[in-house]
Amino acid sequence: MAKKRLGIDALFASTAVPDADAVTVRRLLLETIVPNPNQPRRRLDVTALNALVESIRQSGVLQPIIVREIKHSDFSSNFSSNFSSLTNNQTTPRYEIVAGERRWQAAKLAGLSDIPTIIRSLSDQDALQIALVENLQREDLNPIEETEGYLALLKLKLNSDEDFASFSRANDIDPYADVLRLLFTMNNNRTAQKDTSENKTPRNRVNNNVVIKLSLLVEAVFSAIGKTNWLSFIQHRLPLRRLPNDVLDALRAGQLEYT
To answer: Which one, of 214, 7, 1, lies nearest residue 130 by Cα?
Structure first.
C-alpha cells in the first residue's frame, strides 16, 4: 500500500507518514512515552479531550500515534519523577511523541496501560514538520497557534533554499521576520502588477528570480495544507500578531474567540 503523508507530498519527502497497514504497529507502555517539549500546539481543548477519553474507553485507540526513540538523558529531563524507577533502567527504550499527543493523553485518562504506535527515525526538524502539519490540519486549532504554525512551517520549508537568507537581517528580533519580509514582498509585487494592469504608477517592486522561486515554495505550503492561501493569511491572520500581549495570551488560552 502506498505511503501517506500529512498533506505534504510535494513538500517534505523525508517526513512521509506510513499507512498503518503498511508498517509494523507496536503497542508501547504509556509510561515509556513522553510528549514533545517543542509541540507547537500549546492548548488541549478539555471538552474535546474528555469526549476522546470516552471514545477510547468504548473502542480503544483506533489510530496509532507516531513516536521516535530518544536518548535516555533526553527522556529523563522531560519525564515525570513518578516514573523514576523506569528512567533508572537504562536498557528500556524511551520514546517521544511526534504526532498524537491528544490520543496519548486521553489513553492515560481512560486508564489504559499501553497504546498502538508507529516508531519512526526522525531528526528534530522532521519531527517538528510532522507535528506542525498535523496541527494545521485540525479544524479546532486556536487562531494564534494556527498563525504561528504556518509561520514556523514556512520557515522550515524556506530554509531549505539558500536564497532565502537574503530576507534575513542581522538585527531581526522576531523569529519570523524573514518569512514576513518575503510575504510582504510577494504582496507588494501583486499590488504592483495590479497597478500596471490598471495603468497606474506602480509602487517599488521587487521582481526577480529569487522572489518568484520562493513564492512558489510559499504557495506550495498553503496548497498542501488546503485551508487558506498566502494572501488570505496576510489579510486575516497576520493582524493577530499586532494585538496586545494580554489579548494574545487570552486567545491562546481559549478565553476569547477570534472572528
So the answer is: 7
Predicted confidence at residue 146, as pLDDT, reads: 87
Cβ pair 113, 30 in contact under 8 A: yes
Q: For the segment 68-108, what is each residue's pLDDT rounded down to a tens digit?
A: 998 755 544 454 444 444 445 556 789 999 999 999 999 99
Q: How far is Cα of residue 61 from the mean position of the Cα atoms in its chain? A: 22
Of residues 101, 134, 146, 148, which has the active-site annotation? Answer: 101
Three-state SS at 64? coil
- Domain of 114 in residue numbering reads as 13-136
The verdict on whether 139 is a catalytic residue reads: no
pTM: 0.71
Question: Is residue 50 domain-shared with residue 109, that is, in the same domain?
Answer: yes
Q: 114 forms bridges with which residues in the sheet?
A: 29
Which of 120, 136, 152 is the last residue in one of the domains?
136
In a domain, 82, yes or no: yes
